[in-house]
Design a protein that fits this description.
The complex is a heterodimer of chains A (304) and B (401). Chain A is mostly helical and 304 residues long. Chain A contains 14 helices and 2 strands; from the N terminus they run ααββαααααααααααα. Chain A has a two-stranded antiparallel ribbon with strand order 1-2. In chain A, α2 packs across α13 and α9 packs antiparallel against α10. Chain B has 18 helices and 12 strands. Classes of the chains: A mainly alpha (304), B alpha/beta (401).
């Protein structure tokens, strides 16, 4: 433990509060183990039990896991992963240029301050309240159709803007945009401007500066953005419920339904499966980006 | 506890084992946040502590104190039967509450497990028991499958669907008997139907429709076998794919929004959603259906926590149960929530004696007539069907379709 502490402090180049006593780090790790790791272990163990008529059957069995793959819940998991990854990708495509403009573009300090303030507003509002507003805008008798018909752009209301996967994607992109853009903005904003100037002086095109300098150096922020977006997207409940109208069944709904019948093992198996999937995704992500960035360094940009 | 792996004696098991493990996952933490300040009432106290669904609450319990001297401390529970049963079993709510109030069905599991006391019908404080009609006091809401009387009826209703009479071309006064066909397979309503997405609330009425129309053999719509559940879900999947449902609804607020925005023509919903929508749309604009086949009849029962026996406050608790059968509670519930219950005639007596307006008294009488008409048809729902796991699993197919 002491060696680990020494290594950590040497690597960071400074003496952290945890270095002051070996007990502090040990206590921290013990608490972390208890509040994070232990519940995951309990979850995994529960997935190997069964339930019947609102009662647990404490007999080890693979029945629950078999049920996951035969009841349609596997499809729900795959759908959830697909939607969450798509939303994350869309966020990345939208957030990176926006963050680049915000950090290195020609915007004034006042503009930057206003945009950053606007980006933090969603953190202070209830998510259901924010999303339910879109029902009134997107539905058949909603604002968009009302305006389009008043302007005689369409003769009859446009159908299919609500209760579709597209509507759910849209709601999630709106919800999680700050989660993606803020870490990327922070990572880009700490890139030394002299590096960019030097590259430009040596004749590098703007595209080359972005791809050869800004992108590699901002990868820790990109990875942090992916983590902060993908996690909540996988657990989305409000958007599929309010904008999917019951036609976009996602993992949270499936868990909720199982929980309503006190099927703890099913809930545990679904949750364990997702944790496993997230682990696989991040392992792949680390493998793919290992040449450019160390995932463990991703959160350093947040400290700047 | 003879067999650790059995499912018959798990109240003891949950006390010792499940509680410990759930504590680790954080579920146990809920106990501390429920708001009870201490253990339940002592023997000499006039305070009754209840834990249950908030629909059973009076808007102002001071009426209770004024008429009986009792005080109510009510802690609202989630409507979800899973959450409720977890609280009773894992969190041992009986240590803190005297009475549990929940939709019928839990007594079939929690009664034999020993969490609920059997009602003493001869308790002198339960004065109105004998005059309470059997349709209420002997219903499956309060009598267990083992034949024991575990509860006292509190409120109830017969749920169907809200609709716009002009869209269906039926009498605007809402007195027509409509078929559940308008929800499931009427071409006039295709793509204009809102259906509830919760398995326990929705699958029974679909089974009732299939049974009544002769399209499927179903013994009891409230308690489907796995095979029957599969048949019903196959039908619903086909209807969903045919575009019958505009949306699947998951909350009371959504029910109101769908009606007030005219987003659906027919909506499987609670009766208060129709009342609430009419406040905005105008009286009688939407109606709550009388049906040809029957209803999702539900009721809330009041059950005594087994721990009351050792606390010695049974007399106080029985006085409270008697209050649920009396006219004051009945009249206030009907006026404020539109729900009926046993002994509606006492509600009319109470309203008359307390100089309520003629309109209010007439409304109570109409509530009585409505319930009498609806309760003559099937079926009484349960929150705990025998094959809940299989039904829930089948329901996933419907949601995924």
């Amino acid at each position: 433990m002491a060696i680990l502490t020494q290594k950590l402090s040497r690597r960071a180049g400074m003496r952290t509060p945890l270095d002051r006593s070996p007990w502090l780090l040990r206590s921290f790790l013990c608490v972390w183990l208890f509040v994070v790791i232990a519940p995951l272990v309990v979850l995994l163990v529960y997935s190997f039990f069964d339930s019947s008529n609102f009662m647990m059957i404490y007999k080890p069995s693979l029945k629950t896991w078999e049920g996951i793959f035969t009841s349609g819940r596997f499809e729900v998991t795959v759908r959830t992963l697909r939607i969450a990854l798509t939303v994350t990708l869309i966020e990345l495509v939208l957030a990176f240029p926006s963050a680049l403009w915000l950090a290195k573009g020609n915007c004034t300090k006042a503009t930057r301050a206003i945009v950053l303030a606007l980006l933090t507003i969603p953190f202070f509002l209830d998510q259901s309240s924010r999303i339910i507003v879109w029902r009134g805008i997107l539905d058949e008798n909603g604002l968009i159709n009302h305006v389009l018909m008043a302007l005689h752009v369409v003769q009859s209301p446009i159908k299919g803007m609500l209760y579709t996967e597209t509507a759910v994607h849209f709601g999630m992109v709106v919800s999680y945009f700050p989660m993606m853009i803020l870490p990327i903005y922070m990572a880009i904003s700490v890139i030394d401007d002299t590096l960019i100037s030097a590259a430009a002086d040596l004749g590098a095109t703007p595209a080359r500066i972005v791809f050869d300098i800004i992108l590699p150096l901002s990868l820790p922020g990109v990875l942090a953005g992916v983590v902060f977006t993908l996690g909540p997207a996988l657990a989305s409940w409000v958007e599929p419920n309010l904008l999917g109208g019951g036609f976009v069944n996602m993992l949270s709904n499936s868990v909720d339904s199982a929980y309503g019948a006190l099927r703890y093992p099913t809930v545990a198996a679904l949750s364990s499966f997702v944790v496993l999937m997230i682990g696989v995704i991040f392992a792949v992500l680390m493998f793919v980006t290992r040449r450019f960035a160390d995932l463990s360094m991703s959160f350093r940009s947040l400290q700047s | 506890m003879k067999d650790r792996h059995s499912i018959t004696s798990q109240l003891t098991l949950t006390r010792r084992d499940m509680l410990k493990s759930l504590a680790a996952t954080g579920a146990f933490a809920l106990t501390g946040s429920l708001g009870f300040s201490g253990v339940a009432a002592a023997a000499d106290s006039q305070t009754v502590r209840a834990y249950g669904v908030t629909t059973a609450q009076l808007k102002d319990w001071s009426a209770l104190t004024k008429s009986t001297g009792l005080k109510m401390e009510f802690i609202g529970s989630n409507n979800d039967v899973g959450v409720y049963m977890r609280d009773i079993l894992a969190s041992q709510m009986g240590n803190k509450a005297d009475i549990f109030i929940f939709e019928g069905g839990t007594q079939n599991i929690l009664g034999p497990q020993g969490a609920y006391l059997v009602i003493d019908e001869k308790n002198p404080n339960l004065k109105l028991w004998q005059r309470t009609p059997d349709v209420w006091k002997r219903s499956q809401v309060v009598v267990g499958k083992d034949g024991k009387q575990y509860g006292v009826p509190v409120i109830g209703n017969a749920d169907s669907f809200g609709y716009f009479p002009d869209k269906l071309g039926v009498k605007p006064d809402g007195t027509s008997d409509l078929s559940w066909k308008v929800i499931f397979e009427d071409d006039r309503t295709r793509g204009r139907v809102g259906y509830d997405n919760e398995w326990n609330y929705s699958i029974g009425v679909a089974a009732l429709y299939l049974k009544s129309s002769g399209k499927a053999k179903v013994d009891n719509p409230a308690d489907l076998t796995p095979e029957e559940a599969k048949t019903v879900v196959d039908f619903l999947v086909a209807r969903k794919k045919a575009g019958q449902f505009r949306t699947l609804v998951s909350s009371y607020e959504q029910q109101i929004q769908l009606l007030t925005n005219h987003e659906v023509d027919v909506l499987n919903c609670w009766e208060p959603a129709v009342r609430e929508s009419n406040l905005k749309l105008g009286d009688g604009k939407t109606r709550y259906a009388y049906t040809e086949e029957g209803y999702y009849k539900w009721g809330h029962g009041a059950y005594i926590a087994s721990q009351v026996k050792s606390r010695g406050n049974e007399d106080t608790v029985y006085k409270m149960l008697n209050y649920f059968l009396d006219g004051e509670y009945r009249a206030l519930q009907a006026r404020d929530r539109g729900y009926a219950g046993p002994n509606m005639d006492l509600a009319v007596q109470y309203a008359t004696a307390h100089n309520w307006s003629a309109d209010q008294i007439q409304s109570l009488k109409e509530t009585q007539e409505k319930v009498d008409r609806k309760f003559s048809k099937p079926f009484v729902s349960t929150t705990t069907p025998s094959h809940s796991d299989a039904i829930e699993e089948e329901w996933q197919r419907f949601l995924n379709a």
